[in-house]
Specification:
This protein is of the alpha/beta class and 378 residues long. Among the domains are: 6-223, Rossmann fold, CATH 3.40.50; 334-371. Helix content is 35%, strand content 19%. The protein contains 10 helices and 11 strands. It has a 7-stranded mixed β-sheet, sandwiched between helices. It has a 4-stranded antiparallel β-sheet with strand order 2-1-4-5. Strand 7 (176-180), helix 6 and strand 8 form a beta-alpha-beta unit. Helix 3 runs parallel beside helix 5 (158-171), helix 4 (131-141) crosses helix 5 and helix 5 (158-171) packs parallel to helix 6. The chain is globular. The N and C termini lie far apart (93 Å).
């Protein structure tokens, strides 16, 4: 079995809340509260969950961009949380991040060439004479042209800026990249381009990828494993195919049921969660999901379930009793026939529209020729 590339054990991050003139601490936001996970070389681990569940905070903790309240992170067996600032800077070459906002993550005062050359210089990856060639190579890898190195970030679209962010992460030749919702600010067509680019680069360079995302359809397409977070904790973790086909935790079941389906005739079971996510300032006792769970019982309100299982881990007292929603069946014959009719309808409509446009263009040209002929006649 391959040794894990990065291991997190009982990671905790509490942000203090201070009030008053003296700034006394009156509480703490429990953003991440006891998370353990391991990432293997070359795999894609997706972190999913509602806004405010701690996904982005966990991603930054894995890279030590913020200091944990407690817990440990080891990379290739080396503890990162105890390294000095100088030693940690050297390790950052192998641990990179692609930020969510492509408009705010690039320095507007630097050209793209300077942005990409900075990590090359900082980590002394290539000599100064070869940096321009390496910058051109990085731009080509992400589908941009060498002359783009002379432009500034504001001269690019959102998708192009995100590609530049990916190129900057690749410049240091990392072993692990955290993508903090790298496509959420982009158009759907551009999202597909960036996701496919990340997959291609992962296969080409053997990268491990931690993908933080809201869109479970995207996660299903790219992830090797999925970790579902709720209120600072992981409530379910499994291989992507198994989690989407047989989710165990009621929260995961609700997330999977909410994925849009392209076939309107496919059977679907709606799972609507009542209430709002509790405040991370004061999470509920017992199972943190019990205030919204349709299967809650007395012990859920007092005893916190552990994340248990071999390969498919679940933190729920009753997951063995809860039947997973039926997976969406293939479209029925009537549904397929309906889809085929719609496709033929739109194809015929498009052909008719093109024919009408061609006829109108021909008529206009003939009329114009007739007017010209008439003017030139004696």
């Amino acid at each position: 079995m391959t040794a894990p590339l990065l291991v997190a054990r009982e990671l905790v991050k509490h942000f203090p809340v201070r009030r008053g003139v003296l700034g006394r601490q009156v509480g703490a936001v429990k953003a991440v509260d006891g998370v353990s996970l391991a990432i293997a070389p070359g795999e894609t681990l997706a972190l999913v969950g509602e806004s405010g569940c701690g996904k982005s905070t966990l991603g930054r903790l894995l890279l030590r961009l913020i200091e944990p309240t407690s817990g440990s992170v080891t990379f290739h067996g080396e503890e990162l949380t105890t390294l000095s600032e100088t030693a940690m800077r050297a390790r950052r070459r192998h641990l990179q991040i692609v930020f969510q906002d492509p408009y705010a993550s690039l320095n507007p005062r630097m050209t793209v060439g300077q942005i990409l050359a900075e990590p090359l210089q900082l980590h002394d990856i290539v000599p100064a004479s070869a940096r321009a060639a390496r910058v051109a190579e990085l731009l080509a890898v992400v589908g941009l042209r060498p002359e783009h190195a002379q432009r500034y970030p504001h001269e690019f679209s959102g998708g192009q800026r995100q590609r530049i962010g990916i190129a900057r992460a690749l410049a240091a030749e990392p072993k692990l990249i955290v993508g903090d919702e790298p496509v959420s600010a982009l158009d759907v067509s551009v999202q597909a381009q960036v996701i496919n680019l990340l997959k291609d680069l992962q296969a080409q360079f053997g990268l491990a990828l931690v993908l933080i995302a809201h869109d479970l359809a995207v996660v299903k397409h790219v992830a090797t494993r999925v970790a579902v977070m709720y209120l600072g904790r992981i409530v379910e973790m499994a291989d992507a195919d198994e989690l989407f086909s047989a989710p165990r935790h009621p929260y995961t079941q609700a997330l999977v049921a909410a994925i849009p389906r392209p076939d309107p005739d496919a059977p679907r079971r709606a799972l609507l969660l009542e209430g709002d996510v509790p405040s991370p300032l004061d999470p509920p006792a017992g199972c943190r999901f019990h205030t919204r769970c349709p299967h809650v019982e007395a012990r859920c309100r007092t005893a916190e379930p552990a994340l248990e299982g071999d390969g498919h881990s679940t933190a729920c007292h009753r997951w063995r009793e809860i039947a997973a929603p039926a997976a969406a069946a293939p479209p029925a014959r009537a549904g397929r026939a309906r889809l085929e009719r719609l496709q033929r309808h739109f194809t015929d409509a498009a052909e008719t529209s093109l024919a009408r446009q061609g006829a109108a263009s021909t008529i206009a040209r003939l009329r114009n020729d007739g007017r010209n002929t008439g003017r030139s006649s004696p």
